[in-house]
Amino acid sequence: MCLMLLKIFNAKGTAYKSSLLLPVLALLLVVLPSPPAAKATSGLRVPTFMQEPPSHLLFSNDTGTQISCTAHGNPPPVVSWVLKDGTLTTQVPGLRKITGNGTLYFPPFLAQYYRTDVHEATYRCRAANEAGTVLSRNVQVQAVVRRQFHVHVENTEVYLGNSALIKCAIPDYVRPYVKVSSWHRGEEILLPDLSDVAGRYVVLSSYGDLYIRSVRTEDSLVKFSCLVTNTLSGEKQRSASIMLQVKELSKNLAPRTTQKPVMEVHVERGNDIHLPCNIHGNPFPIFTWYRVSDSSALYPIPSSQRVILSRTLLLIKNADERDAGKWVCQAANQFGEQRVEIRLLVNSYVSVHILPQVQIVNSGGAAIFNCSTTGSAIDGIEWLHNGMPLQGNSALSTGRENIRFITKTSLMVQNVGRRDRGVYQCLVENSRASAQAMAELKLGDTVPELIYTFIEQNVRPGPLISLKCSASGSPPPQFAWLLDSQPIMDVSLHHRFAIGQFVDMSGDVISHLNISHVRPDDGGLYKCVATNSMGSVEHSARLNVYGPPYVRAIGPIKAVAGEDIIVHCPFSGYPIEQIRWEKGHQELTSNLHYSLSPVQQGGYLVIKNVEPTRDQGMYTCIVRSRVGEEARRDMQLNVNSPPVIEPFKFPKNLQEGGRAQITCAVSSGDMPIYFSWKKDDMSIPTSLQITEKKEEFYSLLVFKDISAKHSGKYTCYASNAAAKVNYTAELQVRVAPRWALEPMDTAIMLGNTISINCEAEGYPIPTITWFKGQGKISQDFKPLSMRNNSLVLNLATDIDEGYYMCQATNGIGAGLKKIIHINVNEPARFEQAARNVSSRRNDPINLECQAKGDEPITISWTYNNGRIDLNNFRFSIAEMKTEKGVDSQLTIARSDRQDSGIYRCIAENPYGRAELVIFLAVQERPDTPSNLEVFEVSSRTVKLSWRRPFDGNSPVLSYLVQYQPLKYLQSYAALGLSGGDWSGPNIINVTLPSTSISRSYDSDLRESAIVAGLTPATTFLIRMQAINEIERSSFTDPIVLKTQEEAPTEAPSNVQVQTGGESELIVTWQIPSRESWNGELIGYTVNCSEEKQNINYISVVNNSLKSVIVSGWATTKATIRGLRKYTRYAVTVRALNSFGSGPWSAAIFGTTAEGVPEAPPQHVNCTALSSQSLKISWLEPPLQFHGGIIQGYKILYRPIVNQIDFPAKLEVKRTSNLETYLHTLHKATNYSMRVLAYTATGDGVASQPLYCQTEDDVPDAPASIKAAALTADSILISWLPPKNRNGIISHYTVYSREAGRKGQAKSYMVRVDENGYPVTYEARGLAENQMYEFWVSASTSVGEGEPTSVVAQATNTRAPARIASFGQVVRKSVGTALILECLAVGNPTPRARWLTRDRPVTFSPFYEVTNEGNLKIHLCPEITLARQIICSEAMRFNIK
Hints:
Elements: H1 2-11, H2 14-31, E1 45-51, E2 56-60, E3 65-67, E4 70-74, E5 78-83, E6 97-98, E7 104-106, H3 116-119, E8 120-129, E9 132-135, E10 139-144, E11 152-153, E12 158-159, E13 164-166, E14 168-169, E15 178-185, E16 188-190, E17 201-203, E18 210-212, E19 223-230, E20 236-238, E21 242-243, E22 246-247, E23 253-257, E24 262-268, E25 273-276, E26 279-282, E27 286-292, E28 298-300, E29 307-310, E30 313-316, E31 325-333, E32 336-347, E33 351-355, E34 358-361, E35 367-374, E36 380-385, E37 388-389, E38 403-407, E39 410-413, E40 422-429, E41 434-443, E42 446-452, E43 457-459, E44 465-474, E45 478-483, E46 486-487, H4 488-491, E47 497-503, E48 509-515, E49 524-532, E50 535-545, E51 547-551, E52 557-560, E53 565-567, E54 571-574, E55 576-583, E56 586-587, E57 594-596, E58 605-607, H5 612-615, E59 617-625, E60 630-640, E61 644-645, E62 654-655, E63 660-668, E64 674-679, E65 682-683, E66 690-694, E67 698-703, E68 712-719, E69 724-731, E70 733-741, E71 746-749, E72 754-757, E73 759-763, E74 767-773, E75 781-783, ...
Parallel strand pairs: 2-10, 12-22, 24-32, 34-41, 43-50, 52-60, 62-70, 71-78, 79-86, 118-126
Antiparallel strand pairs: 1-4, 3-7, 5-8, 6-7, 8-9, 8-10, 11-14, 13-18, 15-16, 15-19, 17-18, 19-20, 19-21, 23-26, 25-30, 27-28, 27-31, 29-30, 31-32, 33-35, 35-39, 36-37, 36-40, 38-39, 40-41, 42-44, 44-48, 45-46, 45-49, 47-48, 49-50, 51-54, 53-58, 55-56, 55-59, 57-58, 59-60, 61-63, 63-67, 64-65, ...
């Protein structure tokens, strides 16, 4: 059919297609069948985890890590990651990456990039789809930055024959991820998993310690080391190997331990755990393990397949919560006992479950989720709905009105709606882990909910119109369409209206109303109604079609008395200007009873609180358009009265077997009335045999034989044409308690755990109470406090045995009581495992053995693991039954030494076996020490050694040593005959405070001790005895010994010191007394040390101490040389013998003679203050070189000048200060300075020369000046340098002026070289035959000096010959070169000649006249000294 319609549709034109479109669609919607009903959530599945991430993740920054999370559902869920606070986890470049498949990746990173918010955070995996959202448990991510660490094996005391615990020391900061993987014993590898608990070597499962049982000598011959593994990176590290130092316990020792007296051990539930008991003693102790009950009582632990006892080690396999608690290890021997308490903590990983896991609840119903947890130390419970937390501030509130907490573990969802469906999660965590469980809430039958609705429209006639409504619900709703409250199919019988509906893929029902060829009278109030078995929902909106007003006819309108009603006017046409209402031809207006809405809102009429007599009748709706057209229509309003049910209730205190009836009566309402009943919202089952009787206005339920199954809520429904009403009453049948789980008599082994359940049914719910009889046979019951209905006995003890009563009451009847008897089967046991008994020799002994436990108990005795010979008249055994067991007594009539030993009392019954170890010590006086020998001898002490005697079974408290000097004995014969006289006043008694024990070559135990207080070089007679609590032993035979010599004990007396020669001291003394020599004196040692209080004391290694050894005991004088001058010395003297030196005498002081300083002053410094003054400063010579008292200082200084020019005189200045000032010095002159210190004896060493120059000053006036005419307009001025230049001449200033003329003179600056030349100046541009005055001044860096005298010279055309140079005295050293200038001027130019001693200078190897007319003397020989040389007749040079 679809194919045929498609062909027709494709064959025609466009206009034809449009005309056919709506009818075809309408036909299809009507003809095509609807799909089968389906729930709104069909096909959807909430997300569930296929791979949930772990609770903890520890990784190294070197390796990085990744966390995978996968989930499935329909549609496939989207997997993401969130932080603990719910914020979305984002990528952090280089540190955190989220892949597309839901993997959280942490790449390797450097230590400096560690971030707490990334690498130490809590993450959750989130999976979400349309059906719901689920979160994973908390994932604690912890990155560990690589750190270097080292492990080593801790050295500990190891004793032969005892057990040892060797620890592998791992630093605390890496212990969480570094574990012991194995131990190495030489080449042998010891693995934790392969350790036999009964073997000699066991690697403990707790911390990886190595346990060695029964240490042997060969254990000290091999090397032990531990191997650890970094569980994050897989790296392994092996410790350095150590050798065990195995010691032998040679003396009796009570049990002791290096283990902590109370220690905690943690174990994960299901793992094996070793409990060590590292106690040693001599003899090797007997070990007993106990459990500590809640009442702090100790109960021996029997060995089983799960709890294995191996003397000093206890292994618990597959540990669980039962094993948590206190475990006590007791070790005992005849010298004492030692206990170690181990507190075992079983860490149980948390788990959680939610019941029910899936709930399907109808709309408006209620759902309850119960969260049950297992595990230890639950920190908190968190509830989530679709990934969102429900708790607020950890309170029992959710923030949503319809969700509340019954308890922390129970959640109730009331009035279930669409928003409540999805995933509910319960998340629990403790310090070690977290877990989550999920449950799903599905909606069953739900009230329809509109998803899409049409809107009000204004259209013109002609076009097609389609109105759409969409709704969801379960079961899927059915749609009905109404026009002005009338079903559309009843209004229109032609085919312009088409209605259809279908269900889409999401389960929503979609309905269309299609109208073709719209006409003005099609306008009106359209309504879509979605209905299912749970209810209905509707939507209405107007469709306005342009056209004249029209009011269509509708059937009677029904109203319910007492309620409001809205009456719509069924009009069409648009636009409408006014709508009016009339009743009985009277127009209605808005008042307290009526309310009229405006035209824009549809113009409906609201009648409030409808009354039949007043409001029933005919109403007229009048509609007027804008052009004045009107339309009207009458409508009949019928008022119906609804049924009113009178309240009813069931009688109280209805019990099983009783009878009852209840009446549902209607006091008003239109007839006929129809009644129906439901129980708990369901039809009343016929199995309840409830009879219903109906009349016109009531219905009666009759209960003939009431039982508990009749309890429930009964609802009466009454309906008529106006309404359907209901009323509910609850029937509570009070049922006396009856057993659901009746407790029975039971038996339990001592120390085990038992739980006895007691459950009862009834209404109200019975209260379960447990009672215990006082005593084992008493039935005087007292209540017990139990957490639930079960009687739990944890670690049952004998006081738990007796009668118990479970009582169930609910106020109905007498209740239930059940008395049971719990028999605690007590194995034979003793309160203590061992004890010590002591007795004096020859005294009678009673050994008591009190065994506890259930009968029958048999007792047997052993002595040193052998049978006791009861045929011996001294032994007898007596037994007596007691309330708690059996007392046995072993009596020894007259004790003897051989009776000492180990006695065992062995008790057995059907439930177990135990033994009591009694260490019997028959005590007597100790034996005399034997083989007394001298082991070591010194001057005042002697070390004695002897064979350890029998202690008489009472520890030797001390040893008494007696000795006396041999010189006090009367004769050696007396010594030989009687061993000496030990009753005189010279006898000395010494109690040895302690002894040391060793084993001799023949394996005998020997003791040794040091006796002090002897005198040197003395012969003594010595003996000893042993002492215990009983008595003293006899003395040993005396032995003779001589002490060694000792250094003298007295110093030489009357020591005197005198000053000798330079740097010498003479020391004299007197010989010490003879008694203090302690041997023969061989000489004396004289020490001379510099006194530290000296003002010039300087500590110098090996230099401040002088020592002289003088030979001969009679020598009493010594001279000490090579001392420092004028220094105070402390002199001491001591005596020497062949053993050593005696004490030093008291220090006597002496001082050496005074000398001169041996070193110059230090750090001499010079500073120029001006051109004629200098400042000199210094530090005093080193103290050790003062040589006496420094009186002052001398400064030696002279100028550094040319010795030929004038001699430099050395000047001296004295001062007592460390600085001084030198004045009236030559200006700009370099001085040589030295400083020395002097004492009263003389001058010391002068310092090295120090050169210092005075500052520059202005120079003196040039020494001489000349002026000579050169030409008619020039004059040559020449001059000699200043006698005292006072610095370096920088330039000369030549001043000139015309003679007789006043005013400022002209000046000319003449620059000079480093030698001070030139010293001439040619004044040019002068007036002919004019007289001029000239003068010259010199300048240094300081300034211009004084000028010369004024010379006058006139210009001249014919200047006479003149010599411009100056004659002078020249002093030169022999062998130096010299140039003598001769500057001649005149016009014409004159010729210069040189004379010496009035004779012309001729050619000579020593002389040469230069082209300039100067005389050059190459080498001044001695013959030229003091010679006068003349240049021409006007200039003389005196050469010296």
